């Protein structure tokens, strides 16, 4: 009869414990993250038919940088930058740090088992005694009924994921920066070559004018005009030499420390303003196809990082709410105690203790309420930053698309202008030789051809720079 009552009582106790656990679990303040409802534009609203067509093409994934860059020496520089650049290395260390912190938070949800041993010697009234203890200890294990530890673990996980996306964004930005700096170097090389060639032509014209002036077939005004063109070409040459050095310094800084700085100094590209070679230069970078805004914006690493920071802030609210509820901790010990060291772990020396503890906040001068308010404010800030990241990404893509369409039209017109000015300069030289044109007409035609060629080179590299901007804006990797 007694055994039946004992069994019945045990079942009731287990049932009551299960019911209490279920009720307490239902009080958990942890709430899984749900994506914020932020309206995304349905189209890019770009200018030009080509940009509109490109903007409606679906894109499955961001363009990898190896598919974007079609130039082997530039790919080598990018690889070196990804390995040695300090920003990339810092981002990797930060990601590893936050991953370790997340693992710490996860480990805090389980009990910590430790081996404990101590010895005591006490005496009084002439009597002395020893006490030896050894065993296993679970110290202050917090049973997470209200989701505090789960919320903190989820917040740490979201922060780690945000750091992983931030590291991806650093890599995307680094690739874009290296390509942009490399293009600046190539643009400076090309413009310097144009300036040197133009200076040589103007110096030859000046010598011819001086010779004609000695024979009375040219005027002092023509000589001064030729001298002015020579000095203008020298100014342009010095400017491009300075720009080349600055661009090289920027590229070398992005690539990272190298034993041989010349290894990060790219060789100049062939500088031919013909249409065929211009197309070869533009083919160095693959055009970027752009999908719908909802596809592009939400896959950018910086936007995903902002969303993960929002998820972390949301999880912190759960932890702040759980602070209003009791914290239940459990301390347990299983071991052996004896007055003799040799008696440890002997039969009859074993024992155990179980000490649950509940800590209920009663009065804290409003600390918990302030903590909840701070967590909610942090969530609101993270939400606004997430929305801001989406808006910035949308603007960057839309600007790059609009520039792509309009710059292609401008480039075609500039190429036609340069061809016309070059033909005018050649024709003026022939007419001058026949005595049908003046020296001033030739000098003016040469000056216009020089300016048109400079602008054509600048536009060509600006088109490539715009592809870099579009690659980065779409979150390429």
Q: Could you explain how this protein is built, in words?
A:
By secondary structure, the chain is α+β, with helices and mostly antiparallel strands. The chain has one domain: Up-down Bundle (Outer membrane efflux proteins (OEP)), CATH 1.20.1600. Helix content is about 65%, strand content about 10%. The chain contains twelve helices and four strands. Strands 1-2-3-4 form a four-stranded antiparallel sheet, with no helix packed on it. A hairpin with a 2-residue loop joins strand 1 and strand 2. The longest helix is centred in the middle third of the chain and has 67 residues. The protein is elongated. The two termini are about 75 Å apart.
Q: What count of helical segments does DSSP give?
A: 12
- Per CATH, the class reads Mainly Alpha
| C-alpha geometry | elongated
In the predicted model, the low-confidence regions spanning at least 5 consecutive residues are 1-6, 9-23, 48-56
> What is the tally of beta strands?
4
- Structural class, judged by helices and strands? alpha+beta
The description of the largest β-sheet is: 4 strands, antiparallel
Strand order of the largest sheet: 1-2-3-4
Subcellular location: Cell membrane
GO molecular function, one term: efflux transmembrane transporter activity
Keywords: Lipoprotein, Membrane, Palmitate, Signal, Transmembrane, Transmembrane beta strand
Family: Belongs to the outer membrane factor (OMF) (TC 1.B.17) family.
Main features:
477 residues, Outer membrane efflux proteins (OEP), elongated, alpha+beta, 4 strands, 65% helix, disordered N terminus
């Amino acid at each position: 009869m007694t055994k039946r009552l004992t069994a019945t009582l045990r079942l009731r106790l287990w049932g009551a414990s299960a019911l209490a656990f279920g009720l307490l679990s239902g009080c958990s303040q942890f709430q899984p993250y749900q994506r914020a409802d932020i309206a995304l534009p349905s189209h890019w609203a770009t200018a030009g038919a080509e940009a509109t067509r490109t903007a409606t093409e679906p894109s499955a994934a961001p363009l990898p940088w190896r598919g974007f860059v079609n130039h082997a020496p530039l790919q080598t520089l990018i690889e070196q930058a990804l390995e040695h650049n300090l920003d990339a290395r810092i981002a990797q260390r930060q990601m590893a740090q936050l991953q370790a912190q997340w693992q710490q938070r996860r480990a805090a949800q389980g009990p910590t088992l430790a081996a404990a041993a101590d010895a005591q010697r006490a005496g009084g009234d002439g009597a002395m005694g020893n006490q030896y203890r050894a065993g296993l200890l679970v110290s202050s294990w917090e049973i997470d009924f209200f989701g505090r530890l789960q919320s903190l673990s989820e917040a740490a996980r979201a922060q780690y994921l945000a750091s992983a996306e931030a590291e991806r964004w650093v890599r995307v930005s680094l690739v874009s920066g290296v390509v942009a700096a490399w293009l600046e170097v190539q643009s400076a090389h090309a413009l310097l070559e144009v300036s040197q060639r133009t200076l040589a032509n103007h110096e030859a014209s000046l010598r011819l004018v001086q010779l004609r002036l000695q024979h009375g077939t040219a005027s002092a005004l023509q000589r001064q005009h030729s001298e002015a063109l020579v000095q203008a070409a020298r100014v342009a040459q010095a400017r491009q030499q300075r720009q080349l050095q600055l661009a090289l310094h920027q590229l070398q800084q992005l690539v990272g420390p190298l034993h041989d700085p010349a290894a990060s100094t790219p060789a100049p590209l062939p500088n031919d303003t013909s249409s065929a070679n211009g197309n070869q230069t533009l083919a160095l970078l693959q055009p970027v196809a752009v999908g719908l805004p909802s596809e592009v914006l939400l896959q950018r690493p910086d936007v995903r990082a902002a969303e993960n920071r929002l998820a972390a802030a949301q999880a912190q609210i759960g932890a702040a709410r759980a602070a209003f509820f009791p914290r239940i901790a459990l301390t347990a010990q299983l071991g052996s105690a004896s007055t003799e060291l040799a008696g440890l772990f002997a039969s009859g020396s074993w024992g155990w203790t179980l000490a649950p503890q509940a800590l209920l906040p009663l009065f804290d001068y409003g600390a918990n309420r302030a903590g909840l308010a701070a967590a909610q404010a942090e969530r609101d800030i993270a939400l606004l930053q997430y929305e801001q990241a989406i808006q910035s990404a949308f603007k960057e893509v839309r600007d790059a698309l609009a520039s792509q369409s309009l710059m292609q039209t401008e480039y075609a017109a500039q190429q036609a202008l340069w061809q016309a000015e070059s033909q005018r300069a050649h024709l003026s030289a022939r007419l001058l030789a026949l005595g049908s044109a003046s020296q001033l007409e030739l000098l003016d035609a040469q000056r216009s051809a020089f300016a048109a060629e400079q602008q054509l080179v600048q536009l060509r590299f600006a088109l490539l720079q715009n592809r870099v901007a579009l690659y980065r804006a779409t979150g390429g990797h």
